[in-house]
Design a protein that fits this description.
This protein folds into six domains: 62 residues, Orthogonal Bundle (Helix Hairpins), CATH 1.10.287; 241 residues, D-amino Acid Aminotransferase, Chain A, domain 1, CATH 3.30.470; 106 residues, Nucleic acid-binding proteins (OB fold (Dihydrolipoamide Acetyltransferase, E2P)); 73 residues, Orthogonal Bundle (DNA polymerase, domain 1); 79 residues, Orthogonal Bundle (DNA polymerase, domain 1); 68 residues, BRCT domain (Rossmann fold). By secondary structure, the protein is an alpha+beta fold. It is globular, with a radius of gyration of 29 Å. The protein is 35% helix and 22% strand. The strands form seven sheets. Strands 14, 15, 16, 17, 18, 19 and 20 form a seven-stranded antiparallel beta sheet that branches. Strands 2-13-10-3-9 form a five-stranded mixed beta sheet. Strands 5-4-7-8 form a four-stranded antiparallel beta sheet.
């Protein structure tokens, strides 16, 4: 029987591509959060990605991927710990972001259970602790093991690390103990304990927030370190149990008998009005709660109804987490001063009377630009509302109370606060800049960028160390970094330095000397030349000599597709600067800057323009593109007369149709795989 291939509309194809991208992005951030304890985006930013994915899946249910984020729980298990299999899967909660979402959740439950709208059902309501999920496995009252959530089925065995957590009894006391029971909860640090812990750590080892501190403390390979950390535990969930419960309240009663803490702020409520009231009440006092909470969990009290509802994907149908808005607090602006970046951009910064927001002490907040100051009428001495969303830089939202003796509004400085050079504001930009390329603030910013992860990636040489060396006259430009060893004696006298850290630094500097051309171009920090344009220039000029020779020739640069006038002018000005030229020549001799490699192959795809469409069966879209590039292909997103091949999978969309109209050859993924074998 001939297989029927459904042609997707252009709108469906775009949605499918976006779902794939979102899936990859969510997976990446889940690993960073759950496995590495090093999130790089705020909770709010992550929630927005989740929202977008969920909306697309709702609008296009027939396009839901096999690897949809809603089918995957947490992240993979770290190789650092032994694996521990959960007797019952640890599910992850879906999110509600407002009252409407909560109402929709209740409606779905009633519809599923064939309940009338007027029938109320009981929910356990409790604050959602921002900690690390833990599964405790008891047999005949004895604690057998403790493990992290992991991927929901398999977690990390951290039994040795929880021995000293006072809230976790090693033996349950009482009658009628279950033969086996899994008790789920959160490991966390109180806000005060988090602040004290950070005070005791050096700058390099400080944690960004209590959740990361708890995760980092629990997942130590050395259990002795964990023992010293003031970790707490609160139970909130039931896994596998030989004892059958009718309600969650019965389970909580047992927890109380066993001296396992549950949340003191929990309540049982029914109906949207009561649930919404509870949410608002806890949100109002969230800053007064001794630990971080980022929302409210609502779960059905009736265990039999829970079982009837079951789960969809990775989420139980009977529970949901409604997220709080970004944390806010009120404090006073003591002073407004300026920060100067590597490109000369001058950013106004509010210096604040210290305030505790969600366990984090905030003393600075960005004011973005001078137009923002004008718009919000922000002055020194004013009481202002500060917002901190996750790990993003705190910002001033609005003036709450104007200072009685208000000073004049802060205006853009005519002279750079650092070097006293003239400042300029270019047409169409809100940013004020220092025009002096030799401004010490710009030099510092450039040095920090040069050694950063996406550039030379010199471990042990971050912002703090760069400032330290710069202020002590040891590093004044890029070249000085590679001669830092001559300052060994002086460095060892500085705070935080010893023989071991110094030797590690020298090793890291030496390792960084071998660098790809595109990364080197990016490391220079030329204005308007980011990662994308750095790759474009490397591909165009192939080696460092060609790049140096042609980057000051405007006519040559104008011939490069994708290079705009701002970037062209910036490149020309950079290379015409005599000081820059001297530094670049020295770097050229010091470093091994690797040529850009153009892939040449005997493949039919070599130097051909390729477009992908449809769902590939044997390869992910990312893997297929990678293979094609290895074969010398050039990947495009749209079909034109210049397209050589369109590689199709299942349900090819409008691109396949257009290819047929233009006479472009359609081929299947098998041919791509065949070429790589």
């Amino acid at each position: 029987m001939k297989k029927i291939i459904k042609i997707l509309s252009e709108k469906e194809e775009k949605a499918l591509e976006r779902l794939k991208k979102l899936s990859s992005l969510i997976n990446k951030h889940n690993i960073l959060y759950h496995q590495k304890d090093k999130p790089i985006i705020s909770d709010g930013e992550f929630d927005n990605i989740i929202k977008e994915n969920n909306k697309l899946e709702k609008d296009y249910p027939h396009l839901i991927l096999d690897n949809s984020p809603n089918k995957i729980i947490g992240g993979p298990v770290s190789k650092k710990f032994e694996k521990s299999i959960h007797k019952q899967q640890m599910l992850s909660l879906s999110n509600a972001f407002n009252k409407d979402d909560l109402e929709e959740f209740i409606k779905r439950i009633k519809k599923f259970l064939y309940l009338d709208d007027f029938q109320n059902i009981d929910f356990i309501c409790e604050p959602k602790i921002d900690g690390l999920s833990l599964n405790l496995n008891y047999e005949k009252g004895n604690l057998i093991s403790a493990s992290t959530r992991g991927d929901g089925k398999v977690g990390e065995n951290v039994t040795n690390n929880i021995i000293n957590i006072k809230d976790i009894p090693k033996k349950l006391i009482g009658k009628n103990l279950p033969n086996e029971i899994e008790i789920r909860g959160e490991v966390f640090l109180n806000k005060k304990d988090f602040i004290e812990l950070n005070k005791s750590l050096n700058e390099k080892n400080k944690f960004s927030n209590p959740r990361n501190a708890a995760a980092g403390s629990l997942r130590q390979l050395d259990a002795n370190i964990t023992k010293k950390r003031p970790l707490n535990f609160i139970a909130h969930g039931l896994g596998y149990s030989t004892k059958k419960y009718n309600t969650y309240l019965e389970f909580y009663e047992d927890l109380k008998k066993w001296n396992i803490p549950s949340n003191k702020l929990k309540e049982m409520n029914s109906g949207l009005k009561s649930l919404d009231r509870y949410f608002n009440e806890i949100e109002k006092i969230r800053n007064k709660i001794e630990y971080d909470v980022d929302g409210i969990v609502f779960k059905l009290n009736d265990v039999h109804l829970q079982k009837r509802l079951g789960f969809v994907g990775k989420n139980p149908r009977w529970a949901i987490a409604q997220k709080f808005s970004a944390e806010k607090s009120i404090t006073k602006i003591k002073k407004i001063d300026f920060q100067i970046g590597r490109t000369g951009a001058i950013t106004p910064v509010a210096r604040l009377l210290e305030v505790n927001i969600g366990g984090v002490i905030v003393s600075n907040a960005t004011l973005h630009n001078f137009d923002e100051i004008q718009k919000k009428d922000i002055r020194e001495g004013d009481l202002v509302e500060i917002q901190r969303a996750g790990d993003v830089i705190p910002q001033v939202m609005k003036v709450v109370k104007k200072d009685k003796s208000r000073k004049n509004i802060i205006k853009p400085p005519k002279l750079c606060p650092i070097c006293k050079s003239k400042t300029v504001k270019e047409d169409g930009e809100a940013v004020i800049r220092c025009e002096n390329n030799n401004c010490s603030a710009q030099i510092l910013g450039s040095l920090i960028h040069f050694v950063s992860k996406k550039s030379l990636n010199i471990e042990g040489l971050g912002e703090k160390q760069i400032i330290q060396f710069y202020n002590n006259g040891m590093i004044k430009n890029f070249v000085d970094i590679f001669y830092i060893e001559k300052h060994k004696k002086k460095i060892l006298e500085l705070e935080g330095w010893g023989e071991l850290s110094f030797n590690n630094l020298i090793r890291s500097i030496n390792n960084s000397k071998k660098i790809n051309l595109n990364k080197f171009i990016f490391a220079l920090g030329i204005r308007f030349v980011g990662e994308t344009l750095s790759n474009l220039l490397a591909k165009e000029f192939l080696n460092i000599s060609n790049f140096f020779e042609n980057s000051k020739k405007k006519d040559r640069l104008n011939n490069i597709d994708g290079l705009g006038p701002k970037a062209i002018n910036s490149l020309c000005n950079y290379f015409k600067n005599h000081n820059n030229f001297i530094i670049l020549e020295k770097l050229k001799n010091l470093l091994s800057i690797l040529d850009y490699k153009i892939v040449v192959s005997n493949s039919i795809f070599n130097n051909k323009n390729i477009v992908f469409t449809g769902t590939l069966v044997k390869l992910s879209r990312e893997e297929a593109k990678h293979l094609a590039v290895q074969l010398g292909a050039k990947i495009s997103s749209s079909v034109t007369k210049k397209t050589d091949f369109v590689i199709i999978g299942n349900n090819p969309g409008s691109k396949a149709k257009k290819a047929k109209e233009l006479g472009v050859k359609l081929i299947h993924e098998e041919e791509l795989i065949k070429e790589t074998s």
